[in-house]
Design brief:
The chain is mainly α. The chain is built from 27 helices and 4 strands. The chain has a two-stranded antiparallel sheet with strand order 1-2. Strands 3-4 form a two-stranded antiparallel sheet. A hairpin with a 5-residue loop joins strand 1 and strand 2. Helix 24 runs antiparallel to helix 26. The chain starts with a strand and ends in an 18-residue tail after the last helix. Keywords: Ion transport, Membrane, Sodium, Sodium transport, Transmembrane, Transmembrane helix, Transport.
């Protein structure tokens, strides 16, 4: 910030240097912008994507960034990745491949929401180990949505059949009491319990009215019952959180791990302890524990956790469960044999996954080594765009016409997807939402707010090591909710590294938990792209994600703290200040 013009009493212009004060003003202005946007995102006073445009309005007005600089933050490499993945998702849904996979998975796992959600979390976490978190969430969510709708429609079909059966009986309550016993009888009697002094038809009508009332009070008739709505919320958050948790396990699983590895290897080139294998051994147990505890928490939070119902292996399925399974099987058979378009889509999906995994696995050279002249140029978005273009080129079916002679000839072909179909699937609101997060992160860095936050960490040096780790982990977890994960880790690594050196602690003791906690962005839809993707399906409100995500955040930080004082200590000899770290001198400051 340059000198400021003022007019003195003598009539002359005087120049005052306002460097520090102007900088602090910009910090306060950026903090105010951050506060306003956070409140709007929490309260949904404006649509989320409109709120995400506020940095483009407020930063230029406060002089933090120019309008051109802010605008450039709204379209990044992530958006190209999203475009390619949406091409795949469009083809999957157009040709009903997701429905085939969904129905098959339900037939294998069963319709119990608890085991179904655990199955989805496990498969999503595994995919996220090798693919980007965003790609995994974008690809799995259509399948999850189809599964949820199939289970709900199956239950609706069963209840409709039961209603028809009940209405055809003359003495319904008596027949049910005689023919059904145990818990199943009690459940049915609750649904069709007649009012004293009225006929059983009155009881049936009362039951229908209650069902309509329940469905009418749940998001504008979108769900039959509250339990259906809760199941949809559970499934969505399972995908968002498991895609993030799975990314912890490999260096290539998420960008924050890659940024840490790059920073660490540049600052400590003599240390050869961070590689694909050591990272996997360190983080895999933590990810497994976090995944299981998160599943238990989400299941209890939305649907309750009935151990007796879940773990009674010898209990025969109820009539309702049998009917749901039969309906699901019938729907699967309606799809018929797999078609050419589904096979091509599945092959392209597998090719995309293999190209992502083999680009730069870490433990061996990937295909990116073929372009050694341009290191780092090709990313996951390059693969996504390549496969995405193929969906517009590969023919799905031939277009034929009949000539005047009666001969049928092919004159053109229809691709797997068209541009109009792609546009209908592309979540432009999510693209703006994530872009707003990038703009906010850039503004925090440009204004100096990020440095101000970092300087406040200096007094941590006088605290016990475990407390330093806990505070830094909680700070990172809080900051990453409103700033992008890569921006958070990029900001804090240069601050935490000299802090560890100054207090004579192994740098990994502080850097590892901070890096892992950077991924714990579970509270807000804008905290990371997987949250935004599942939020776009319309089942969740912001407060749903805040309440559920707070529990997952606590679980994540607790498990990371446990790991840092148990199995991770002998792996990296954390209790010893290493020789590869710079020697302590009086000039070293945090």
């Amino acid at each position: 910030m340059g000198p400021e013009e003022t007019f003195g009493h003598d009539g002359y212009v005087h120049y005052l240097d306002c460097g520090d004060s102007c900088t602090s003003i910009h910090e306060a202005e950026c903090a105010y912008t951050l506060f306003v946007i956070a409140i709007f995102w929490l309260t949904e006073a404006l649509p989320l994507s409109i709120t995400a445009l506020l940095p483009g309005l407020m930063f230029p007005m406060f002089g933090i960034m120019t309008s051109k600089e802010v605008a450039s933050a709204y379209f990044k490499d992530f958006h190209l990745l999203l475009i390619g993945v949406i091409c795949l998702a469009t083809s999957i849904e157009k040709w009903n491949l997701h429905k085939r996979i969904a129905l098959r998975m339900v037939m294998m796992v069963g319709v119990n929401p608890a085991w179904l959600s655990l199955g989805f979390m496990s498969s999503t976490a595994f995919l996220s180990m090798w693919l980007s978190n965003t790609s995994t969430a974008a690809m799995v969510m259509p399948i999850v949505e189809a599964v949820a709708q199939q289970v709900i429609s199956a239950e609706a079909e069963v209840e409709a059949t039961q209603m028809t059966y009940f209405s055809g009986s003359t003495n319904q309550a008596l027949e049910i009491d005689e023919s059904i016993n145990g818990q199943e009888a009690n459940e049915r009697k609750e649904k069709t319990k007649p009012v004293p002094g009225y006929s059983n038809d009155a009881g049936k009508i009362s039951s229908k009215m209650e069902l309509e009332k329940n469905s009418g009070t749940n998001s504008g008739n979108k769900y039959r019952t509250k339990k259906d709505h809760m199941m949809c919320k559970l499934m969505c958050l399972c995908i968002a959180y498991s895609s993030t948790i799975g990314g912890l396990t490999t260096i290539t699983g998420t960008s924050t791990n890659l940024i840490f590895a790059e920073h660490f290897n540049m600052r400590y080139p003599d240390c050869q302890c961070i590689n694909f294998g050591s990272w996997f051994i360190m983080s895999f147990p933590a990810a497994i524990v976090i995944l299981l505890l998160s599943w238990i928490w989400l299941q209890w939070f939305f649907l309750g956790f009935n151990f007796k119902e879940m773990f009674q292996c010898g209990k025969p399925p109820t009539a309702k469960q049998k009917a749901c399974a039969a309906f699901i099987k019938q729907e699967y058979q309606k799809l018929g044999p797999i078609r050419y378009q589904e096979i091509v889509t599945l092959v392209l999906f597998i090719v995309m996954a293999l190209l992502w995994f083999s680009r730069d696995p870490g433990f061996v050279s990937g295909w990116s080594a073929l372009f050694s002249e341009y290191p780092g140029f090709a990313t996951d978005s390059t693969v996504a765009l390549l496969i995405g273009l193929l969906f517009f080129l590969i023919p799905a079916k031939r277009l034929t016409k009949t000539t005047p002679t009666g001969e049928t000839v092919a004159f053109d072909y229809s691709p797997l997807i068209t541009w109009k179909e792609f546009q209908s699937f592309m979540p432009w609101d999510i693209a703006i939402l994530v872009g707003g997060g990038f703009a906010l992160a850039d503004g925090c860095e440009e204004s100096g707010l990020s440095k101000w936050i970092g300087n406040k960490l200096s007094p941590l040096g006088s605290l016990p090591v475990w407390l330093i780790i806990l505070i830094s982990s909680l700070l990172v977890t809080s900051l990453t909710e409103v700033a992008s994960n890569p921006a958070t880790i990029t900001l804090l690594l240069p601050i935490l590294s000299p802090l560890a050196e100054a207090i004579h602690v192994n740098p990994l003791y502080i850097l590892l938990p901070s890096t892992l906690c950077t991924s714990f962005a579970f509270l807000l839809p804008v905290a990371n792209p997987p949250n935004a993707i599942v939020f776009s399906y319309g089942h969740l409100k912001v407060m749903d994600m805040v309440k559920a995500g707070l529990g997952v955040n606590i679980v994540g930080v607790a498990v990371v703290m446990l790991g840092m004082f148990t199995w991770i200590v002998p792996m990296f000899d954390l209790h010893t200040y290493p020789s590869w770290a710079p020697p302590i001198s009086n000039e070293t400051t945090p």
